[in-house]
Design a protein that fits this description.
The protein is α+β, with helices and mostly antiparallel strands and about 100 residues long. It has one domain. It contains three helices and four strands. The radius of gyration is 14 Å and the shape is globular. It starts with 5 loop residues before the first strand and ends with a helix.
Length: about 100
């Protein structure tokens, strides 16, 4: 089993705020899922976690498969304050 930390990323092309090519979180960059190669969004806080923990990028589908395959041996980290702020900002923008 791959023991590196995984960063769950939104898939590019999923409609957000009425646009399929717009990231939910400001400052997000496109990258690729390490497992399937699909395009994903990586937020600024995600990049920081990737750099700090050596996390690999996984889309939601691949993360679901990984967790299912390794049920009982996957540890989930808490959402960071930086992630919470990004999510709150995204919700505020969506309501404007």
């Amino acid at each position: 089993m791959d023991t590196r930390a995984s960063l769950v990323c939104a898939t590019v092309g999923v409609s957000v705020h009425g646009s399929e090519d717009r990231a939910a979180v400001n400052g997000s960059e496109k990258d690729v899922c390490e497992d399937c190669g699909c395009d994903v969004w990586v937020s600024p806080s995600g990049r920081a976690m990737q750099a700090e923990h050596g996390a690999i990028l996984r889309c939601i589908g691949c993360t679901t498969s990984f967790v299912t395959q390794h049920s009982g041996s996957v540890e989930l980290a808490n959402v960071t304050q930086a992630q919470i702020k990004e999510i709150e900002d995204a919700f505020r923008r969506a309501l404007l």
